[in-house]
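sry for the spam today, last one i promise. struct tokens for design, 113 residues
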């Protein structure tokens, strides 16, 4: 996997508005928010997209989901939120480092795309 902007954020080479960090996961505010609350949660392990994850990634992916729940609660998203993970260019993925969009703060319509 080639280096991405998320790798640079993990290494603190470029700034980000970080809202959560531990050994496995980093969460930060999206610079181009699509909702009043728009946070990205990423594993520190470089996985380009969900299709590239393996059984070895089970623990980090589970941790990512549970931390996304925690980040949403800490952001005040008590009335609901949406988690979005795009997988591949045709699905809208633009940064090839697996990431979850945590969206909330307004009613979210369905279908999303």
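last one done:
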């Amino acid at each position: 996997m080639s280096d991405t902007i998320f790798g640079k954020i993990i290494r603190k080479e470029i700034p980000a508005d970080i809202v959560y960090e531990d050994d496995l996961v980093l969460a930060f505010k999206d610079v181009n928010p699509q909702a009043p609350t728009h946070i990205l949660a990423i594993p520190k392990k470089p996985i380009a997209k969900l299709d590239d994850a393996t059984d070895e990634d089970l623990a980090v992916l589970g941790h990512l989901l549970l931390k996304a729940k925690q980040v949403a609660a800490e952001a005040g998203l008590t009335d609901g939120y949406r988690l979005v993970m795009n997988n591949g260019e045709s699905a809208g993925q633009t940064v090839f480092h697996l990431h979850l969009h945590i969206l909330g703060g307004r009613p979210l319509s369905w279908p999303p795309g």
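The mean pLDDT is 96. ok im logging off now
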